[in-house]
Specification:
- This protein is an alpha/beta fold.
- The chain has one domain: Alpha-Beta Barrel (TIM Barrel), CATH 3.20.20.
- Helices cover 47% and strands 11% of the residues.
- A seven-stranded parallel sheet has the order 5-4-3-2-1-7-6, sandwiched between helices.
- The longest helix is centred in the middle third of the chain and has 23 residues, at 166-188.
């Protein structure tokens, strides 16, 4: 169970820390260019059983590398594109020079891998890391730093798709098309990924009812469930209110006793990437 966006905002940090301490979250994805990254990092340092990963930020934030503006990745003030819809045309029409992406992604890897915590997995904001050219950069950095797991946000079509909005279903279908190629690239590089990643369809709206649908749909093997818990407040409303997330409802679902009961009743073992990595090596 992975909570994304750790370090992006104080309210997000509050929700994730709550779900680690009282709930079923076993892994977190850190935004190294988030305004509250240092707080998230301190929490990871004092939580030895918690798996930490890099949540690459190429949209909706500020670039780390000074080369990002020169390459067309960010504007003159270092601001990254607003979202995937603004990023993709620029990327596919070659409005972003590859060297700029390499330096920005490399800078984010360097920052988290030099922080003193063990980095176990990698993913990205709005899943842009699975784009062919970007994935190669990510794979190269994972091999450089000995990181084994890369998220492939593939989700098997099933009944739970019916409970998601049309926009989310279309987005998941597009992601699935890229995932097949990404999976072969990752395996060819000798790296690991889960058999399925769920939570994209219901990002920001996973209540107990949705969580139950996700759990009963899981197949045998290592699966990742993505969640986005937070404790709402004025800061989140101003910064990320346009996401339309039900922050507290998702956090409460992850902290509920009912969530643990659902896992137990379904015969699912809650684990972390590091434990699965050790089992794979054994």
């Amino acid at each position: 169970m992975t909570a994304d966006d750790f370090g992006l905002a104080r309210g997000i940090n509050r929700g994730i820390m709550d779900c680690v301490e009282r709930g079923i979250v076993t892994s977190v994805s850190l935004c190294v260019n988030g305004s509250e990254y240092e707080e998230a990092l301190v929490f990871c340092r004092r939580s030895p059983g918690l798996d930490a990963g890099l949540h690459i930020l190429l949209v909706e934030g500020n670039a780390l590398s000074s080369a990002s503006a020169e390459s067309g990745l960010s504007d003159g003030e270092g601001r990254l594109p607003e979202n995937w819809a603004a990023f993709l045309p620029r990327y596919f029409l070659r409005g972003i020079k590859p060297g700029g992406l390499e330096k920005e992604i490399g800078a984010q890897f360097d920052k988290i891998c030099g922080s003193g915590i063990r980095v176990v997995h990698v993913n990205s904001h709005q899943h842009l890391h699975i784009l062919p050219g970007i994935l190669k950069i990510v794979i190269d950095n994972c091999r450089k730093y000995g990181i084994k797991y890369i998220r492939v946000p593939y989700s098997r079509p099933g009944p739970r798709w019916l409970s998601a909005g049309l926009r989310r279903v279309v987005w998941q279908a597009i992601l699935n098309l890229f995932c097949a190629r990404a999976l072969s690239q990752i395996r060819a590089a000798g790296l690991l990924t889960c058999v399925e990643t769920t939570g994209v369809l219901h990002a920001g709206s996973i209540n107990i009812s949705i969580l139950k649908k996700i759990i009963i749909s899981l197949h045998e093997g290592l699966s990742e469930i993505i969640c986005h818990p937070a404790r709402a407040g004025r800061e989140l409303s101003v910064l990320y209110g346009h996401w339309g997330y039900s922050w507290d409802e998702e956090a409460d679902a992850m902290c509920s006793g009912e969530a643990r009961e659902l896992l137990q009743e379904s015969g699912i073992t809650l684990c972390a990437f590091s434990a699965a990595e050790r089992e794979n090596e054994g």
